[in-house]
Specification:
single chain, 261 residues, alpha+beta, Arc Repressor Mutant, subunit A, Endonuclease, Chain A, 8-stranded mixed β-sheet, 3-stranded antiparallel β-sheet, 11 helices, 11 strands
């Protein structure tokens, strides 16, 4: 059986996605879709023949096989939409640092927004990034680059006793320590509100908070693209970002307290 066959039929796909929400009567399915009830009924019978749907009284529902099929099609459909929707973001960037497991879940970013810095708005990405941080209660991030405007934002969060976890390169750490208030960092470090991890050759810039997600990438020529970010308020995107952070954290080295002395 071709388990991606419903993707080739828009109506089959839409019926499966409709029933993935809950079991429904024919009239309810019709209300979700644009096709006639006759066409929908004919297609449902085809799905029944494939053991993907079943009928109980006047209600249609997915079988266990149909539930798996519908979820797989939903994921594949979301991923395809995300690739197409943000092709201007994916195409010029190096995606090899992204774990294959998260590439398969790229549909989680479908509700994101692409932030571009136009010629006369070169600070737009940075300003958006700062707004994300300032409205957050918890911040985790991966930073392969240094920007001086980020330091007072991090200090502001720590001063309000909000936890911050960062994965940075040795170069970014050095620049951060040279421009930050060391007393603030030490106090937060001692209170376990600040955790810093070191890892070289970072190729993604990530910020994940309790409310927001932001992703920046390197260009295929090796330069970091500071004029384009993908951001989202969606819970699925935030979860995707948390998984990327945890994956990067695996072989990172935790900074010891004496490093701030």
């Amino acid at each position: 059986m071709d388990y991606l066959a419903p993707l080739k039929s828009d109506l089959k796909l839409q019926i499966l996605l409709s029933l993935l929400e809950r079991e429904k009567k024919l009239a309810e399915i019709h209300a979700d879709l644009k096709s006639s009830e006759t066409t929908i009924l004919h297609t449902i019978k085809e799905l029944e023949g494939l053991s993907l749907t079943t009928k109980s009284g006047l209600t249609y529902q997915l079988t266990s096989l149909g539930l798996l099929e519908a979820q797989m099609c939903k994921n594949a459909n979301q991923s395809a939409n995300t690739i197409e929707k943000f092709k201007d973001f994916w195409l010029p960037h190096d995606l090899t640092p992204l774990p294959p497991s998260l590439m398969l879940k790229i549909g989680a970013l479908n509700d994101s927004t692409l932030i571009r810095a136009e010629t006369l708005e070169l600070g737009k990405v940075y300003n958006t990034f700062q707004e994300i941080l300032l409205t957050s209660n918890k911040v985790t991030g991966i930073s392969p680059i240094f920007h001086p405007n980020y330091v007072p934002v991090i200090e502001h969060l720590l001063a309000k006793n909000k936890p911050v976890e960062l994965i940075v390169t040795q170069g970014v750490l050095k620049k951060t320590l040279s421009s930050a208030k060391k007393d603030t960092l030490k106090k937060s470090f001692q209170n376990n509100k600040l955790k810093i991890f070191l890892k070289e050759n970072l190729k993604v810039a990530l910020t994940v908070t309790d409310k927001n997600f932001s992703l920046g990438l390197f260009k295929t020529n090796g330069d970091y693209d500071d004029n384009m970010d993908l951001i989202s308020l969606n819970k699925e995107a935030i979860q995707w970002g948390q998984e990327l952070f945890q994956d990067t954290l695996k072989d990172s080295k935790k900074l010891e307290p004496e490093a701030l002395m």
